[in-house]
């Protein structure tokens, strides 16, 4: 699920993913997750591949993709940054933090920074509620994110400094 | 012999730097020639102390916390691995920390104690004894035990779990399902996450017992996509369970079958509503279904289905191991057993507090939580998630009990307690409740889909001072329509925080609030 594993759209790879998962009960969400994990998004072409495989209409598939906040049909920036907007984080200053994030990045929610480093998304709770405000970058959650800490985090993403794991 | 050191590995501990800490400690141990065995345990949920490093000593586990990377040199200097307490971060014996000692940990007895993925650890701490007992019982006897325990649905609705199971047991079908609702979307809650990240075998065991009880052979855990670590942990634990005949077609050599799979949600709060969840599992948009028919009769793929919250299923191994009475002995009135409360928001000592029902909200927030983190006066508390009421000080002596909260027009829900200091603007909070409903409504019924948008607009007009009285009346009407006219709790409860904010914090619903904050 890390953006580093994302590969460019490839219909044959997509077809293989769909083929592998299509016989599972309730296969659509697992398929959509697998496609988005691989390609970073679910392009319109994918809908035309999924619908016949699941013997459903393209409208149904599109409806599912657009219903869920997690799925996207546009390629995001190199990093998806999710800002928790929920109450426990509000009580710890999340409103000021989200305003700061939008202002410093120069984008609103669902927007991608000009250099394509960051796509900003709202999220309603990351389950880190005792240590908010919380921000998720890829699969990493960050706690007690002050505006200053947010700036450091963004600088790290921009300079692509790789942390030795 | 190497000294065993525990460093927690749940989402919050990691968010506070536990992984970096573990790496640095490993490197320093090599550098200084100290033999340490670092175990990544779960978290005990004492979040203000995370990362909480524990040292295994003959006197028990000694704690240090919160430990930052920069503290490690000094800790090595005082040879912390001997458990010595000559350091400002020393906490003494972890089990003696009052916050932990004063809890009644039935469900969370193992959290933070064991390595979450070690089946041996789980078994050494009473794990899978409940299943062994269940395998010796017939289905009805298992259901009877759950009924006798008094366990009620921990997702928030508090419906008696045993009665739900009985309905599914009594339903005739060639296929039945157990569905675990792990779409823990309420802000201020993380107890489900802690179960899945710190003690995943407990959930697997609970679901397996549930399967035996109602005759279901397939289980699904519907997990929210905001919990990537829980996804990974559950899948590892499930693989281990299969490898050890604890899942599959011959559980513990009994010939009984139970299969289990984790399915990932996709960021839709409404999918925590059980019928919406089932639609989502079937691969559809998460539109709420009308009830009846109940999911227990017509559930997943049209088959009889138990849909239970993580905490309900996680309570089952204890009940089957220690007996229904041991569980029912805790609590008050019709609220039996324990509820894992979660203290969050502006709180000094945030974390998980598992208590038998009965103490007051005030005891929870002050004796455990220690008041606000920034020291400002506490003003409002939202209990039970984004659909729960805001409680002013006059209600803080309410007992933590389903019925007592209902009597105050509030809900305990999933046990989330979000604390706000006196800088909170309650009209802004009320507006957010409506805004959240706009974002998360499934759109099936009109009061919720459209009413929420109108709600945001009306609150905006009130906040701008436009026809205040008339608009407050309109808002009251609108709230009533949502409560009475919505299909599910999303629309039906969105007004609770709004109405409680107006009722108890009416001074915030004027264009120029004249509240003066005290100096702290």
TrEMBL record, chain A:
Cofactor note: Binds 1 [2Fe-2S] cluster.
Residues involved in [2Fe-2S] cluster binding: 84, 89, 125, 129
Cofactor: [2Fe-2S] cluster
Pfam families in the cross-refs: 2Fe-2S_thioredx
Record keywords, A-Z: 2Fe-2S, Iron, Iron-sulfur, Metal-binding
Coiled-coil ranges from the UniProt annotation: none
One Gene Ontology molecular-function label: 2 iron, 2 sulfur cluster binding
Keyword Cell membrane: no
PROSITE patterns: COMPLEX1_24K
Protein family per UniProt: Belongs to the complex I 24 kDa subunit family.
Listed name of the protein: NADH-quinone oxidoreductase subunit E
Species of provenance: Marinobacterium halophilum
Organism lineage string: Bacteria, Pseudomonadati, Pseudomonadota, Gammaproteobacteria, Oceanospirillales
TrEMBL record, chain B:
Superkingdom of origin organism: Bacteria
Cofactor(s) needed by this chain: [4Fe-4S] cluster; FMN
InterPro entries linked: NADH-UbQ_OxRdtase_51kDa_CS, Nuo51_FMN-bd, Nuo51_FMN-bd_sf, Nuop51_4Fe4S-bd, Nuop51_4Fe4S-bd_sf
Domain NADH-ubiquinone oxidoreductase 51kDa subunit iron-sulphur binding: 427-472
Keywords tagged on the record: 4Fe-4S, Iron, Iron-sulfur, Metal-binding
Single GO molecular function: FMN binding
Keyword Transmembrane helix among UniProt keywords: no
SMART domains: NADH_4Fe-4S
Family as reported in the entry's similarity comment: Belongs to the complex I 51 kDa subunit family.
Protein name per UniProt: NADH-quinone oxidoreductase subunit F
Native species: Marinobacterium halophilum
High-level lineage: Bacteria, Pseudomonadati, Pseudomonadota, Gammaproteobacteria, Oceanospirillales
